[in-house]
Design goal:
With 277 residues, the protein is of the alpha/beta class. It has 11 helices and 9 strands.
Length: 277
């Protein structure tokens, strides 16, 4: 379906940050707990990168979406509270970054509910969005989310514009993502765990993302950029992100929105369409 953005808005940008800390590395292999160097790479996100990011976003009056595993939220409660207090959205991202495809149905539900409670207890607000750890939802994930009143999921890659999903009599919004608009494939280099693809240049990644934005802008869609504080929070990369924000802001009719704001607009579009039928 074509999205009708509010008057004066041609294109929406969703900056989404996965504040995962060391959890993805632990999930990849519990033996990595014995490799301090790998864990320290993850720790850079909540220890250094996240604060720099929210300070930079405040400079441009931008609110964003932060996906936070429950254990990271528990270990960094003051940081999560500050992110929330500054107007950013905190969404569910598992308990210890467990890929749902590795779980039984019962485990998936238990982890979804327990991690949601942790975030709600810390921020005072239950998350209405979900991003599957490792972008690996199951065939049942959207149904489980919709049954529990989530507004949206952001785990699939079958479109580049948000859309409505009807599942088991419920409605949920999908805000698609892609590996192209994700910092991990370009900058992750961890020889200790055999991730050895060469890091890309900042200018090259800037061009890829800027061109991606231009394409979405021409279509009047939603540019969703998926970032990780442990990666994008490094000084040079953060300057590149700031340069990208400045470039995006040079286009008329662009609005930076949180995932929940986008989902509400998509749902309202759907309600209007249904009322005309």
């Amino acid at each position: 379906m074509d999205i009708r953005w509010p008057k004066g808005i041609k294109c929406v940008v969703d900056l989404s940050f996965d504040l995962e800390g060391r959890t993805p590395w632990i999930q990849r292999d519990p033996e990595f707990l014995k490799i301090p160097g790998v864990l320290s790479m993850g720790d850079y996100g909540p220890k250094v990168g996240a604060k720099r990011i929210i300070d930079m976003l405040e400079k441009y009056n931008i609110t964003a979406t932060f996906s936070v595993p429950a254990t990271i939220a528990q270990d960094h409660q003051n940081l999560v509270k500050e992110i929330h207090t500054r107007g950013h959205e905190i969404i569910n991202h598992g308990y210890v970054h467990e890929p749902p495809i590795s779980l039984s149905p019962e485990q998936e539900i238990t982890i979804l509910e327990s991690s949601r409670k942790v975030i709600s207890d810390i921020t005072g607000e239950a998350p209405v969005g979900y991003k599957s750890p490792s972008l690996s939802p199951t065939q049942r994930t959207l149904s489980i989310l919709a049954e529990r009143g989530y507004l949206y999921d952001s785990s699939l890659m079958d479109h580049d514009t948000p859309y409505i999903v009807k599942v088991d009599g419920n409605t949920i919004v999908e805000i698609p993502v892609s590996w192209e608009w994700n910092d991990f494939p370009y900058f992750a280099y961890v020889p200790a765990v055999n991730i050895r693809a060469p890091m890309q240049t900042l200018d090259g990644v800037f061009y890829t993302w800027a061109t991606g934005f231009e394409g979405v802008y021409n279509l009047g869609g939603c540019f969703t950029l998926l970032l990780h504080p442990q990666i994008i929070g490094r000084p040079g990369r953060l300057l590149m992100l700031e340069r990208l924000i400045q470039y995006i802001r040079s286009f008329p009719g662009v609005s930076f929105m949180r995932g929940d704001q986008i989902a509400k607009i998509v749902l309202e579009n759907d309600r209007r369409a249904q009322s005309k039928d």
